[in-house]
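User: Please check token order:
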Amino acid sequence: MEIAVRAHLINDPAVQALVDTRIYPDVLPQGVVYPAIRYHRIDTPRVYTKGGYAGLSRPRLQIDCYATTYVAVRNLAAAVRAAMERYPGPAVCENEQDGYEETPDPPVYVRTLEFRIWHRE
């Protein structure tokens, strides 16, 4: 599912215009060029019926948007949210929060989006 989400974001014109292919699983590479995106799966609740596992899950995927300015990270997050609204899942944005990291050089703004995605395994 994560590979499909990455491909979906890379193929979205608005997201691609901002990050090109700088969309990474789990950690950003050392020396990354901003803006960039990091994603990882937080959890994977599976759907069960009386007959057992139904073959469906609803993983929660965290997508972190990074940029060197607040306006740029807001714009990137808006593009990601719009792209994910068109993801064939469906994908629902359940949470969004802002952050700031002083450690990288230069410091970066972060906007975290959490999506719940229905998925057939």
